[in-house]
Structure formats: C-alpha cells, structure tokens
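Journal club prep — side note

Before the paper discussion, L.F. wants everyone to see what a predicted structure for a comparable chain looks like in token form. Sequence:
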Amino acid sequence: MVEIEVLRFMADSMKAAQSVDVSPEVDRAILSTIPRRRRPAWSIFAGSAAAILAVAITLTFVLPAHAVDVVDAYALSRKGGDATEMLRACTAVRSPRIREIHGNRFVAVDVYVEAGEKKLAAWQVEISTDDRAAIVGVEGGAPAAYREPPTYDPKALQGGKIVLAALTTGEAPSGRIRVARVHLMESEPCHMEGKVVAAATTGGERFDAKVTLVRTGDAR
C-alpha cells in the first residue's frame, strides 16, 4: 500500500537519530529506572539506550516494509503509482543457490492459478524443485492480461526456487488461468511444489487461490 512507501521514507529520514551519541551517564540513568525483572531480553544484548532506540525504530518502521506482496503493488498501481520496485521486492529470493545438474534434459511446466469465479487481478506464486532440477527460464501465460513474463528475480535462475508475480489494472481473467510457463533443466523427472503467496480480485480484495503445475513435454 501507499502507506508502506510512507513508512519506508520515514525510516530513511530517521537514520540520523540512530547515530546520536549518548553519554554513559545518560545510559545508566535510563537503564536504572527499568526494574530488572521487567527488562526485555534483547536489552541485555543491546548494551545502550542508543542501541535500544535503534531496535525500536527498526521494529516500528523497517519491518512493515518487508511485508510487501503483489496485492500491495496492485493497490499502488490502481492509484496511479509505479509498482515496479514493489514487484521486485516481493519476488526477491534470498541467497539463491546455483545447482549443477548433470544432464541436458529440458522440460516446460505450465503454471495455472485456480481463481474460480473471481477475477484474478494480481497473483504471486512460489515454485520450488528438488535437487534433480534447476529453473532456467520463465515465459508469460495464455490470457492477454498475463501474456508478458511475470516479474521474478533473475538471480533465482539456475536454482531450485523462484517467486513469480504479476498484476493487471485492465480486464482480469477468471477460472483456471495459465499465468506463466517455467522451463527446467533436470537430470531425471523431478518433484515440484507450488503455492500461492497472494491473490487479489479487481478492486484489491484478497482471496484464497490454488496453483497447479503441469508438465507439458520433455526435450533433449
């Protein structure tokens, strides 16, 4: 949501407050007013009032920004904002591991989101494979709204986990929708898992959707 961008801006603007020097006397005066049995566990490791302030600011302003998903990006787009950075944030894969696959077996897997009677205006899906396969490419889906490749983290390619996300502010499809196609390189048929992280209808209402992964054929 737009509010998240505001919180992120506030967090950035308050960085200077985290670097203020506090004298030992002030530290002791503040900490002496806290009963020992009520001191938070993390204050033992914080070591000073300045560090405690930094932790409080982080918990208050920074952490909410990491809760961004495709539905927040969709809400921003509907208000005329550019959701590009939000989409990149919600599809980033932490510490992707490159897999060395011995073999040149390639397979395409179609990714379907089961939306039922709902209009699928925004979706975010996480896909993972076992150690017998690496994800090497991503294509778009079948309906016009999702014909272009979804947003994903390029660093996730050659690895075993990827997050895909896309949205449309135009005509949204419903039913069983092929939203993307993922290409794998595998040593032998692998096991794949998919889950819907978030989905929204036209207007931004969240709903529970399912994902189905369908192998479309093998090539060598």
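L.F.'s comment for the group: The chain is about 30% helix and 30% strand. Keep this in mind when we get to the figures.
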